[in-house]
Amino acid sequence: METGAAEAAKKERKIELKISYSTNKKLEVDETETIDAVKIAAMGLFDIGADEAGQYILRSKIDHEEVQLEEAKTVADYGLKKEQKVILAAGSPFGARSR
Amino acid sequence: MSDLAVAEAAMSPEERSKAQALEQIERLCEEADYFGWDVRVHDAGDFLVCLVRIEKPGGRTFVVRLECDDYPALAPLQAFIDPELFETADETTEARAEFWPQGPNVDPGRAPLPVICIRGHRDYYAGGWHDGWSDPPTAAHALYQHVVDVRNAIFDVWA
């Protein structure tokens, strides 16, 4: 059974990000989660299957500069804040050449 | 029938098309602070023309024009125009190859003007080059996402 302090600490590690794709949707994440896990959860918000994970990336502004978030890092590594906008984007903006 | 459905049923096809294009354009406006673009909309009568100015950090400035005639039955017709004309441009403003970005996935020879290989504009699907356009379009092909992808290509790849 968790103590009140442990529960409070766990709650503190949760933040809500604003995931932007076709529209903005909120996603609660744990600060210890990897960016890869956040990406898959974000894709789920927009009904994009996890099997397409290789085709998508996350971007956000870190110290006022937009960067692609590295998937092995965690939410805490980037210091993502409550309600921070995180962009779900195609890994390559280009379509496949079908002809 | 809901009030919204009644209102939509009373619209002409042109009005319905403009309403659906405007919904996408409003999304572009909402995200202007994050993406750093400027958006203008011109009412061409039967359809809307969306103009988006995108400045590559330390590089060129581009203006993408999207003519939304019969959107979303048809994908928008895309062109790059003189960035100096952003404030006054409309559907008659001349597009020239020199205003297109340069780099990979810009096909200079497919049409009279270059064609970019990014989902969400009419020439991308023309002649069966690609498939994927639907009415309504999926999020990955919609006007808003098209502009996001163009902006990312300008920032990351094109000059």
Q: Can you offer a commentary on this structure?
A:
Chain A has 99 residues and is an alpha+beta fold. Chain A has a single domain (15-90), classed as Phosphatidylinositol 3-kinase Catalytic Subunit, Chain A, domain 1 (Ubiquitin-like (UB roll)), CATH 3.10.20. Chain A has helices at residues 4-12, 35-45, 75-78; strands at 14-20, 24-30, 56-62, 65-68, 85-90. Chain A has a five-stranded mixed sheet. The longest helix of chain A is centred in the middle third of the chain and has 11 residues, at 35-45. With 159 residues, chain B is α+β, with helices and mostly antiparallel strands. Chain B contains five helices and six strands, in the order αααββββββαα.
What characteristics describe this protein?
heterodimer; A: 99 residues; alpha+beta; Ubiquitin-like (UB roll); 5-stranded mixed sheet; 3 helices; 5 strands; globular; B: 159 residues; 4-stranded antiparallel sheet; two-stranded antiparallel ribbon; 5 helices; 6 strands; 30% helix
Structural class of chain A: alpha+beta
Query: What's the helix count of chain B?
Result: 5
Give the distance, in angstroms, between the N- and C-terminal Cα atoms of chain B: 51 Å
Give the strand order of the largest sheet of chain B, numbering strands 1, 2, ... along the chain.
Answer: 1-2-3-4
Percent in strands of chain B: 15-25%
Look at the structure and name the CATH superfamily of chain A: Phosphatidylinositol 3-kinase Catalytic Subunit, Chain A, domain 1
Number of strands of chain B: 6
Largest sheet of chain A: 5 strands, mixed
Number of strands of chain A: 5
Which secondary structure elements does this structure contain, and how are they paired or packed?
The complex is a heterodimer of chains A (99) and B (159).
Chain A: H1 4-12, E1 14-20, E2 24-30, H2 35-45, E3 56-62, E4 65-68, H3 75-78, E5 85-90
Parallel strand pairs in A: 1-5
Antiparallel strand pairs in A: 1-2, 3-4, 3-5
Chain B: H1 3-10, H2 13-30, H3 32-35, E1 38-43, E2 48-55, E3 61-67, E4 77-81, E5 106-107, E6 115-116, H4 122-125, H5 143-156
Antiparallel strand pairs in B: 1-2, 2-3, 3-4, 5-6
